[in-house]
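Limitations

Structures in this collection are predictions, not experimental determinations, and the ligand pose is part of the prediction. Treat each record accordingly. The example that follows, with adenosine-5'-diphosphate as the small molecule, is included so readers can see exactly what is and is not provided: the inputs are given verbatim, and the output is the predicted complex.
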Amino acid sequence: MRLVLLGPPGAGKGTQAAILSEKLGVPHISTGDLFRANIGEGTPLGVEAKEYIDAGRLVPTELTARMVEARLNEPDAAEGFLLDGFPRTVEQASILEDLLSKQGVSLDGVLNFQVDEDVVVERMLARGREDDNEETIRTRLGVYREETAPLIDHYGDAIINIDAVGEVDEVNGRAMDALSALPR
Ligand code: ADP
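Predicted complex:
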């Protein structure tokens, strides 16, 4: 199954993706995790990405897309994936479409995790990642509203809305139910 996960920062996409990845047997590909791994290893990509991430801004698309393309070309992603954090703009969505059409495949759906802004701010402050301070969170929410939320219209009928407020297991149950209703 080839799925994109959408939702504001702090919606719990990463947590849900880890569980879904296990249950569906497809890799969880998180651009945030890939960037953080590169930062940890001090790669040139990590060094460049870090200044954007620390500011709560998007890493330039060219850099991000190159990283995603390399990851999607790894053998474990051949039969499916959960893409978390990409695309984040309409431009990135068309890059993804091109990448997939080169492989002769397409997305099965786009899970949109829905949660109110006050809940996501609370969650992010509680998780305390390095880029989770109030100012960065505000910037990221602004970027989400302006650049990422338009993807909901862009994907149209492919969007599967999931109420992301509740316990982890509860939200996962909703996602699994929604996915089992997909034509296969
Ligand atoms: P969150 O879901 O809380 O926003 P992520 O781990 O998905 O956290 O992303 C952390 C940061 O990594 C983002 O704020 C952004 O700077 C960068 N990033 C992740 N994905 C992308 C992307 N597709 N394009 C540009 N920058 C990205």
